[in-house]
Amino acid sequence: MVLGLALTAVLVGAGLGTSADPQPGTSTSAGSSAGEPHPETLGVHVSGWVATPGVVRIAEGSIVADAVAAAGGALEGALLEAVNLAAPVLDGDHIEIPGPGEQIAVSDGSVGSGGPISLNRADAATLEALPGVGPVLAERIAAHREANGPFQTVEDLLEVPGIGEAKLAAIRDLVSVP
Fold it and tell me: pTM for the whole thing?
């Protein structure tokens, strides 16, 4: 119990300067609506075993620990070992913090527990786990992401040399773009 509280305190401390509300000095245009993106912040959905699940706004360049802290910190019993707290966060990410009794998937390059392999987070070695994706194709996927920025849709894989409609069909349900 003490360890859980200490870990929550560390996570909240790690999130200083990141919260659901804009911080002093954070600029928002006077005419912007709540639905408009803020270029200096990211909108991230944090769910599961956190104090206040929902969409939080955090600074660009933040990591998962910052998003968890902005959601009020992890609850006692949260299985934080299932989440890479040091992973960078992208705008629109969904971070799920699992709790006791929830099934934990082996790390697959995505944030949170379970789910498909994230094309925008997985390294080449993780991408090799996909059917029909060997070391060369995995490197091409990672290189394409580095050269062109994050994949916006799974169909963007068609831009990677060596991936055609058949290969895309074979892996479509095994990958995601968060």
Answer: 0.45
